Queue: 2 jobs
Job 1
Amino acid sequence: MASDESAAAPISTESFRANRPEIVGPESPQKPFPIHLSGAVQHGFGRGGKDLGCPTANLPDESMTPMSSVTEAGVYYGYAQVSREKNGQVILPEEDGRVHPMVMSLGTNPFYKNKNMSAEIHIMHDFKADFYGHPMKAIVLGYIRPQLDYTSREALIEDIETDKRVALRSLARPAYAAYRADRFFDLNNMAS
Ligand code: ADP
Ligand code: MG
């Protein structure tokens, strides 16, 4: 358990990391999921993302209102799509505009002693360039694990890698995979 009494979340222990399930949640999304989010990608705190090998796209606070049905800080999974266009100009290549699996962190980022609640989305796709200012849509389909605190950067990176694998496996189930083609996403964005 947490040894630092100022910690906002329990610490990720070695035994937690060694015993994580590879698939999480029921066979199909249950309430309050699916949760639909959309907004223009904005700058975050400029730390923690890229230097952990895991850039996270931030949505403005007002885009997070639909997440208010979820009270637990932690890691969630689903699908996301970034608009290829910014200010009416097509900037990103066709593959960047597709619907991709994502993991989303909702919480206070205790590792960085960050006080404000925020949601950040890592999209499991290799984007060729940043997409700040681009409209982004996401459908949150399930919950992976609580927010944890970390005593080492290595432990944090290990949990993030596991989160990505768990998200991909969990999304491979038919009732989840179906959301990739949901009408909420913009099919025109994928045409080349
Ligand atoms: P910030 O603190 O500004 O959010 P990050 O280091 O977390 O900085 O990087 C996030 C930015 O990286 C996103 O806003 C986006 O423009 C870019 N990016 C590139 N690839 C990805 C990806 N796979 N998932 C999320 N964001 C990505
Ligand atoms: Mg970020």
Note: The first strand starts at residue 35 and ends at 40.
Job 2
Amino acid sequence: MKRKTSLISELMSAQRKRLVLLGGQSLALGAAIAGQAVLLAEAVERIFVQQAPLSSVVVILGSLLAVMAVRTLLSYGNGRIGLQMAASAKTEMRGKVLRKLAHASVPSALRGQTGGKVSVALDAVDEADSYFSQYMPRMMEAAVIPILILIVVFTLHMNSGIIMLVTAPFIPIFMVLVGLKTKNKSEEKFAQLAEFSGTFLDSLQGLVSLKLYGRAHRQQQEIERSSLGYRDATMDILRIAFTNTFMLESIVMLSIGIVALELALQLLVFKSLSFHTAFLILLLVPEFYSLLKNTGTAFHSGRTSMGAVRKVEEMLAETKEERAASDRGDGAGKTDGTGEIGRVEKADKADKADKADKAEKAEKAVKPGTAHLDLIRMPPSIELRDVRFRYAPDSFELAVGSVSFGPGEQIAIVGKSGSGKTTLLHLIAGLLKPIAGEVLVNGHSLAQYDEAAWFEHVSYITQHPYIFAGTFADNIAIGAGRDVSRAEIVQAAEAAGLAAVAAELEQGYDTFVGEGGRGLSGGEKQRLALARAFLKQPAIILFDEPTVGLDLHTERILQRSIAELAKKTTMITVAHRLYTIRHADRILFMDNGALLDYGRHDELLARLPQYAEMVHVQRKGGFA
Ligand code: ADP
């Protein structure tokens, strides 16, 4: 991908004002540097050569101090602008990364290592800092001030100017050479860091499993290996940086030496130069080279930052490409078999016009802002039409024929473990996209709906709901997707049978749960998910029933809450409990990726031996 700096130029163009200011300040800084040298040379000339009394140079010394102060202020100002540019750029980049992640389809956002993404969002963005805070100000200074100094030197003494002009290019040439050598080093460093972060986070999250399976030591070695890899990559970069600095210093020293030698010859041997001029040039020359040299250091950190920015850019491009792939049409994802969720917003126009009227009504009936969502009837009817799905080529294939569920029906999906129940649930939820066929919601392909708008109507109660780090109340409140009052939260918690749990928590609803807080049991987590659903009042609930037995009391509470929730929704449950299965309006029996049969409990019992057997096993208490 040859869009190396497009993100940078995009970020820079947003800061044009600051760049102009930087240019102006650099010019003033150049003038201050020249002025300082002139005043200093003048003062030295008067005091040491003309032996003038100190009182005669008071004004000069005063001006010198003032110019020095101005110079410091301007330098500081440039640094500040750099920092401000870096801060805005970083905020912008983080925002972009987060927006991309938030807008990416769920499976693609989940794909890859979480740690790796964290390292891009935090470290890579941080590393990009120096491009704006160091590289840009230094480059601007280097573009303006040395030219100014050269002009001054040329007007004073041609030879010195020529020497400077001839030696100066060695610094950028050398930088280019080093740059070529380090080209991929910083990207390598980032790859290593991402791997290290990923391994570390995986290990932390899986600590219990790793310990139980005696893999802790292996994982420790793994962490050690990747941390050593990261160290080596860092050391490589440092080695190059140090060599770089050493070489630059040598070039600068040599160049200053040549100018000084020439000045000495002119001054002492040929006597063609005044002390004042020679001294002034000698003051300006180190400034000239030190600016160019700073550019070298800035260039190096700029390169490292570029590597980091490219990482961010790649991540942004990745999600963009995925989006494009799924936008390419009614099922571009159909061919890749990765099960991407499409965000097809360009629903058929004619169809839209046709439905505009209805949609308008729907807007009033449904939540605001979802006019384009043609969910006129709530709860919706759902239809599967020759849906096929594969996680990867030559892997498990799910192929359900055509089946439809009326609004508000209670559906139970049953079958052996690995028969594709969860996959089917995810397809209906729109978390996975079929490779062929389609899921219709209220008669329209799910792909036509805006993903976010669709999810507004869906609650998915998994076996292991995620508990975010925050208070118990916050965790319930996220279900609503809006600001909710404490009373609403308490009401939802009560409906989900959580009131007693909250009462027992140390600080009630304000107890910290999730990472870093108090842990919750499996049953409590599921009830929390139910409470979220009560707040959300979805039109469709997907429920992955717990496989593990809960105590009778909790079980009752769950059943009652679910029945309450199910009243106004189309509910699709991956069912393990005979109670749920028997009470379902329709049972889908999955076997090895195929929908073997569907119907009511008594119907299936009569005609499907596998179902009868499952019920039999279940009755004996052996089926999970
Ligand atoms: P069930 O819910 O009935 O236990 P699943 O739908 O979870 O079954 O899984 C069906 C098949 O799909 C299994 O063979 C499983 O290994 C496979 N599978 C599930 N999730 C993935 C995934 N993310 N990638 C690849 N294969 C998967």
Note: Confidence is low (pLDDT under 50) at residues 326-371.
